[in-house]
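Support request, please re-run this one:
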Amino acid sequence: MARPPAWTRQRRAAFLEALALRGNVTWAAHQAGISRSRLYKLRKTDPELAKEWDEALAESADLLEAEAVRRAVEGTEEPYFYQGEQRGAARKYSDQLLMFLLKERRGEATNKESPSAPVIFELHLGPPESENGPAATEAPPDTEDDAGA
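Re-run finished. Output below.
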């Protein structure tokens, strides 16, 4: 059975750089030439690696956010074709992505959290029910207060 590759400074740097770029441990492990499971074992025993790992993931999240902002605000070029030939390109923007970013930023700015689960409610079509059973279907009698209004 072959020995696993040595954990060197170069492998560590390659892993952390790849992790910061993509935010994917499996891909970063492959780029560094070391197994994912071995990396998780190293993370458990090396607090400095764990800290650098978390920093790399945070950097990756920043890169993803920057790309999302670019696509939402600057848009992307999408070619259009006529009879099999490209005739031009149109800039497409993502309103949905922009709304998502705005919601996240505003929630962060106001220190409010978005609900993690959808709000579920029931809609009852018909007269309201009282504790004594279904409500009467006729209107209540006029009162003196209502007459002057």
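Residues 47-74 form the longest helix (28 residues). The chain has six helices and four strands.
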